[in-house]
Hints:
By secondary structure, the chain is α+β, with helices and mostly antiparallel strands. Helix content is 19%, strand content 37%. It contains 2 helices and 8 strands, in the order H-E-E-E-E-H-E-E-E-E. The protein has helices at 3-14, 79-91, and strands spanning 26-28, 41-48, 52-53, 60-73, 97-98, 101-103, 113-115, 118-130. Strands 1, 2, 3, 4, 5, 6, 7 and 8 form an 8-stranded mixed beta sheet that branches. A hairpin with a 2-residue loop joins strand 7 (113-115) and strand 8 (118-130). The chain is elongated and about 55 Å long.
Amino acid sequence: MTHEEIADLLMGHLTTVPDRPERNGIVWEDDPATDKDGTPRWEVSVGHAPSRTRTLDHSQDKSGELRVIVVTTFGQYGRDAKDHAKAIAAHFAPGTKIGPVKIVQEAHRPGGFKDGTEYRYPVLIRFRALL
């Protein structure tokens, strides 16, 4: 399974989160063609660690992190962003399986920060894919 296939599986699952943003939706963080204006929106990226071979059955697994940055308009003490972050974390609960991808721990939500007129709240989701 390639990095792109894993990212597609995770993105597909992300698009099924209840109450996701409608107007601006969910965008890839590093895609220059994506309109990143307006809020709320979720900016997504996927990072991978090198594959590792398991010694008993010679299968490989790939660990990584799905990063979702919830972007809302600054104000309201970040309540909108926190609500979105909670919904994402609940949807990617530990043990959730998405094909060969498994969520391995509770989502980390380190807290939000102001960025110009926007408020950004990261949600970091650790996964492992059996290849």
